[in-house]
Amino acid sequence: MRNFFNFLKSRTFLIQLGLAVLVLIIVIFVTLRYLNSTTNHGEFVEVPDFSKKSVMDMRKSIEEAGLRYEVLDSANYNPDYPRFSIIEQNPVAGSKVKENRKIYFTVNPSGYKKVTVPQIIQVTKRNASSMLKAVGLDVQRVTYVDELGKDMVYQIKFKGKYIKPGDKLPKTSKIELICGNGTITDRAIIKSESED
């Protein structure tokens, strides 16, 4: 045991210990320098604002900034942005990111997605309006005609043309309901009298 303590006090051990510490310091220093140079530590790129830019313009700007990108589909059309323009980006504009970072973009589609006109014939105006709102359509106008069912929907129009349940229209389209006013038509009166 005494020999071991003597060895720890010996000049040979102290030189070897000093060399080991020096090698360790050199390895740590070289590793840190390597990591700084490969990870661009402390070097950032500011993410530009791509809002409302076309995909072509975005590609040019993103290459100049030294970044990568991925375009995500968009489910909802936003009328405040041009068609096929950037409506969202992640990370947001002004963020500091490393060079070659991937930026994710959401692109505005060409228009509203189409929805199916529900079965609203022979349904009350009130219920028809609720059913239309539920699918994303709006009632622009209600026109009344001589039909016995008061406020009963008899026909549907879109941009002046008759449509039927099951037809597809762009979401947020405004349609016209043709409803009965509760009066019996002369035709119905003549028909019922002729049956007597």
Low-confidence stretches: none
Strand content: 25-35%
Distance between the termini: 131 Å
Mean pLDDT: 86
The helix/strand class is alpha+beta
Shape: rod-shaped
Transmembrane segments: 12-35
Pfam families: PASTA
Protein name: PASTA domain-containing protein
Keywords: Membrane, Transmembrane, Transmembrane helix
List keywords for this structure.
196 residues, Trypsin Inhibitor V, Chain A, alpha+beta, 11 strands, membrane, 35% helix
Characterise this structure.
This protein has five helices and eleven strands. A four-stranded mixed sheet has the order 7-11-8-9, covered by helices on one side. The relative contact order is 0.11. The longest helix is centred in the N-terminal third of the chain and has 29 residues, at 11-39. Among the domains are: 45-108, Trypsin Inhibitor V, Chain A; 114-185, Trypsin Inhibitor V, Chain A, CATH 3.30.10.20. The chain has 196 residues and is an alpha+beta fold. The protein starts with a helix and ends with a helix. The protein has helices spanning 2-9, 11-39, 55-64, 125-135, 186-195, and strands spanning 45-46, 68-72, 86-90, 96-97, 102-107, 114-116, 138-150, 153-158, 161-163, 168-170, 174-180.
